[in-house]
Each structure stands twice: as C-alpha cells, then as structure tokens.
UniProtKB/TrEMBL annotation:
GO terms for cellular component: cytosol
Single GO MF annotation: protein-disulfide reductase activity
Record-stated family: Belongs to the thioredoxin family.
Superkingdom of source: Bacteria
Organism name: Tessaracoccus lapidicaptus
UniProt-listed InterPro entries: Thioredoxin (IPR005746), Thioredoxin-like_sf (IPR036249), Thioredoxin_domain (IPR013766)
Name of this protein: Thioredoxin
Ranges where the Thioredoxin domain occurs: 1-105
Coiled coil regions, renumbered to chain: none
PROSITE patterns, per the entry: THIOREDOXIN_2
Keyword Glycoprotein recorded: no
Alphabetized UniProt keyword annotations: Disulfide bond, Electron transport, Redox-active center, Transport
C-alpha cells in the first residue's frame, strides 16, 4: 500500500481509524528524513494491512505544533486511535520491523485498561 499524505484535514480521521497507522513526520531539508524515507516506503510495501502516512512538517506547521514535534524525523504509531509509540530519529529497517511487530502484538484491552487507570489517577490529582 502506498503511503498517504497526511494533512490537518485528514490526520485525525486517519489515525483514529481502527487498525494500525504509522506516521512519519519529515521535512524536505532534513537529511535523516530523506535517509529514512525509503525504509518507511519499503515497510509500507511489506505490510499492506497497516496504514503508513507522512506529514510534511514544513507545509503542515500547525499540525506539527499540535503534535509537539520538536525533532524530525519522528515516527508515531497509532493502534485503534491510541498513540502507542513515538520516537524521534531515523530507524534502520530491522528496528522498524521490530516496532511494527511489537505494535501488531499489543494486547489492546490491556492498553485501554492502563490508559483508563492513568487517566483516573490524573483526574484524582487534579
């Protein structure tokens, strides 16, 4: 599956869709971003059941600010609308494969339980 161009208009609906979405935050002037691009594209080809999207931080500055992107490339993974992975820096192919496998293997009931517990604890502190 080819990578999707994500913008302020389609970002939220794309990452909130059921399933797995990986997002590569990048810019044209960023050499590590350019080095990571073919790795990301190859992963998209190898995993047709996973959505892969790219956000150009130069043309989507508001979206990048809202996502608190302070370094690029930044890779995010969402599963069923929940951010489950975030890391800055280009990953080599093997490391990206390991992240994809780990996200696919997540027990989402456990993730939701942990998230609810953290939100409840935060609400008690407020």
């Amino acid at each position: 599956m080819p990578t999707l161009e994500l913008t302020a208009e389609n970002f939220e609906t794309t990452v909130e869709t059921e399933g797995i979405t990986f997002v590569d935050w990048w810019a044209d002037w960023c050499m590590p971003c350019k080095a990571f691009a073919p790795v990301f594209e190859k992963a998209a080809e190898n995993h047709p059941d996973v959505r892969f999207g790219k956000v150009d931080t130069e043309s989507e500055q508001g979206l990048a600010a809202a996502a608190q992107i302070s370094a690029i490339p930044t890779l995010m993974a969402f599963r069923d609308g929940i951010l489950v992975f975030r890391q800055s820096g280009a990953l080599p192919p093997k490391a990206l494969e390991e992240v994809i496998e780990a996200v696919e293997a997540l027990d989402m009931e456990d993730v939701r339980r942990q998230l609810a517990e953290a939100q409840a604890a935060e609400a008690q502190q407020a």
